[in-house]
Amino acid sequence: MNEFSMICRVLGSLYYRQPQDPLLEPLLTLIRDGKLAANWPLAQEELLGRLQQQYDLSAMTANYNALFVGDDCSVPPYRSAWLDGANEAEVRQFLSVRGMPLSTSPADHFGTLLLAASWLEDNAGEGESEALETLFAAYILPWSGTFLGKLEAHAATPFWRTLAQLTREALDAMWEELQEVDEDAS
Questions:
Q1: 109 beta partners
Q2: CA atoms of 165 and 154, how far apart (whole Å)
Q3: In the chain, N or C: fewer CB atoms in 10 Å?
Q4: What span, in angstroms and rounded, lies between the C-alpha atoms of 56 and 24?
Q5: Residue 173's domain spans which residues?
């Protein structure tokens, strides 16, 4: 797994899965113990350190549920909730055509889209960076700034505010990398 894929997988997992999910335990242990920074490819040591300091599983879980779960959540994690005319079926079709296995869960969840970026990066053949660029340009970036801003505004715990900042910086860095790859290919 390359660095781009790792970043997307880590961030996507944190948004997609509730903090008490056993599948997140190894990742959350790395955060809690301050060991994620050693393997993190971006220069975000300060934000990663803040995540470690702000680690409180019960508070993170309660805040996750208030932020992202249910019809009355304060920050819906779905693209279709933020963009007029956006629908989940369009995202599902885009990912299905590229062979990504999908569950019955909505494909336009912020975490799913980041996990999809990881999957596309890991499974792309030579010259297939266009799919990843399209995923970012059409399905992630048009609403991620608004979503992450609302997350920062509504988060009751510093962990989620810091994760929003970390994610914003990571998305910017990954988009810049995609643009550089595109320019090199031209």
A1: 78
A2: 13
A3: C
A4: 14
A5: 3-185
CATH number at residue 149: 1.10.3480.10
Q: What is the pLDDT of residues 68-96, one digit of tens each?
A: 999 999 999 999 999 998 899 999 999 99
Structure tokens at 143: 């609403």
Contacts of 8 (CB under 8 A, 6+ apart): 114, 115, 117, 118, 121, 174
Number of domains within the chain: 1
Residues in Cβ contact with 12 at an 8 Å cutoff, skipping those fewer than 6 apart: 111, 112, 113, 114, 115, 116, 117, 118
Taking the model in full, what pTM does it have? Answer: 0.94
Q: Would the CA dihedral through 25, 31, 34, 39 be positive or negative?
A: positive
Q: Which residues contact 179 (CB under 8 A, 6 or more apart)?
A: none
Residue with tokens 């889209």: 113
Sign of the CA dihedral with 77 first, then 82, 84, and 86 last:
negative
pLDDT in tens, 131-174: 899 999 999 999 999 999 999 999 999 999 999 999 999 999 99
